[in-house]
Amino acid sequence: MKREQLLELLAPYNPWWTEKADWRSSLPEYQRPIVRELLADIRDLPQAISITGPRRVGKTTAVRQGIGLLLDRGIPPASILYFSFDDPALFASPEFQREIFDDLVALFKGRKQPVYFFLDEIQRLPRWELFVKKYYDLKTPIRFVISGSASSPIFRSSQESLLGRIKDRHLLPFSFREYCEFKLRGTPEFGQILAEHTGLREALLQEDGPGCVQAAKKLGDALGQFDEPIHEAVRTYILEGGFPEVWALNDPVRKIEYLMEQQVRKVLYEDLMTLTKYRKPENVLRFFLFLLAHPGIEINTAKVSQQTGIERRVIDENLPRLEMTDMIVRIQKFSHQPHRVRQGNFKCYPIDMALRNAVLRQWSPPDQTTMGYLAENMVLRQLSTWPEKIEITYYRDKKEVDFVLTHGGNKHLPLEVKYRDRAVQQGALRGFLAKFGGKLGVIVTRQKESHCSGEILELPLRYFLLGCGPS
Question: What is the pTM of this model?
């Protein structure tokens, strides 16, 4: 493609090249933590950077916000290029697909100062990883930031050839903490309080029960004025989940239709079928529905096959694919030998509770039993973001511990989620601590106050979700 034609193609994607362009007004004011992480990676790491995640969680928005911050830090506008490989021009001819990447690089030939390439939906370009690898190995002064849907297993498999050359940032749907920050974005003191009270996660990892109670109390006192909005956020988050475009829809039927079309059907009927050529996606949907109907329940694939009438081969093949496409999270049974390959039973949770509500057509306040599962889901979602984690498992002997967070080499933090109006049982946690050592077991409850008795800490759900976020 001639230089003039290429610049004409790129102009709408790069409004900062024009001084009068007002492109930032369309961006939300709220910035997710990944934006700061992205800028730190660009500053500190030599590798290419990728942003992956499910559909419609804000990857493109995060990229454009990152571009805005680079401009604020003095990077020349002409040194920043953005292009989406979703552009119809890419599909005009195979020749254009082969040449577009080299043509983009040629625009900046001879530059000695760093150039920043933000390439969105890059999985649309065949063999894109070879181009990134080529120019990375040639040590061109180009910093590549690429983004694509993790719901495309093809994209994930392409990243494997770039090991050592790429740093991945995985963006999931909004966590409860992010949801609250977004909903209360007009009240900046809320975010400031969360930023200032960061000691709870550290105290948990240090097995400091009294320190946890103190940190939770300080956070609770500071958030006292927000009790009602936080309570309302719990009520709405368990239904709407972390997909921002769902929040703008007023009708529950439209919310369900959106999630089914944009998340479930596109992943199961397009992404997975493109990879596997499987002719009966309805069987995968039946299996997915079974998993959503049984969140947090110990599962055996042979029994699931008998109960659902789905071939075990289909279950075994598609379970890791559902994980890869960010539809579910699977956790294994705890082993004191973490490097041992584990087979057999496991537990599954949806990556976002709204998916469960949409597939099961449940959009009304949950009963206590269902709320217990949803609270477990929120706790797992929070634990998955902890940078200190090695793995998250569950423990079952005669009794079950919902989650075991392994960290710090061989340290284990057991957690139970008890979100019902009845006496809290401590036997499972005490049994785990007695068998494997450790100074602290955590029970996440629906109560408003924290309490520590010996080695058992009772911690309110809201404080766990709001006080254990990013530092």
Answer: 0.91
